Amino acid sequence: MGYRIAVVGATGNVGREMLNILDERGFPADEVVALASRRSLGTEVSYGDRTLRTRDLATFDFTGFDMALFAIGSDATKEYAPKAARAGCVVIDNSSLYRYDHDVPLIVPEVNPQAIHGYSGKNIIANPNCSTAQMVVALKPLHDRARIKRVVVSTYQSVSGAGKDGIDELWDQTKSIYNPTDEKPAKKFTKQIAFNVIPHIDSFMEDGSTREEWKMVVETKKIVDPAIKVHATCVRVPVFVGHAEAVNIEFEDFLDEDEARDILREAPGIMVVDKREDGGYVTPIECVGDFATYISRIRQDPTLDNGLSLWCVSDNLRKGAALNAVQIAELLGREVLKKG
After folding, report:
1. Interval 51-94: pLDDT, tens
2. Beta strands in 147-205 (DSSP E)
3. Which residue, 29, 280, 300, 303, shows the most beta carbons closer than 10 Å to its own?
4. Which of 143, 243, 287, 312 is catalytic?
5. Which helix (H) or strand (E) holds 250?
6. Tally of domains in the chain
7. Confidence band (pLDDT; 50, 70, 90) for 340?
8. Catalytic annotation present for 243
């Protein structure tokens, strides 16, 4: 007997990816329903070789459903996630709404699977920010060996992290560069994104950091270790899919780069591609469609007594969102519900 699953926001980029991954990984589901807002009612989405017609989220009864994977904004999640949870359906939420709630576990299965048992407080589990998810997969096995004191990270985040509107804006502006009569001013982003980089994701905070940067700080502490100090600079780049990060790590104890490379090769969810030659590293375009978090450019930082630097790349629509949510669902089924 398998699970009854609802995918909420099934017509969006992440929702569609959730459906793809549920099928690809052979998730033990007896029933999968696609839910969306009324304006998308009846839209057809793919689930493996099947086609699902979206149903109305506003009137849907979650009673009898085991899990709901939410891929909608915080405002809509605030309205519908408690409704699903009260009906006995465990919510796995991709928005930022519940990430910082002490009664809601924030989970990356390769990093803190033990946190899954905290779901019962509100019947809700939070999925982390896309930039945090891939970084903590890389940090955790190193932290277990040498304990991390401080992380300084610069992100290079694709426009798909801003949704379909972000993808469309990059596409339209790129075309307009070669057709000056068809100017496409910035709408989704604060400045032109085509052939440019923008050091601004989400809103600014009083200390000069952006909310995206704040998320990486708070979420890393919640998922890995509250003692880790994190400083982030988050940048939007003209890439359609795939986030990249340059990560500098200071440890309490010395960790040799060769040992770090071996540790990461054995760690779950990680692929190490680290050859010191032309092309001996992974870039965002090469990780699209893959499940892994890729690590390259592992090297000693000679400016610190116990420092390492590395390059981290992942498909943000997968590990940063849809894949992590499905992995949480698998973990929940395996460790708690034990139905499928």
Report:
1. 999 999 999 999 999 999 999 999 999 999 999 999 999 999 99
2. 148-157
3. 29
4. 243
5. strand 243-251
6. 2
7. low
8. yes
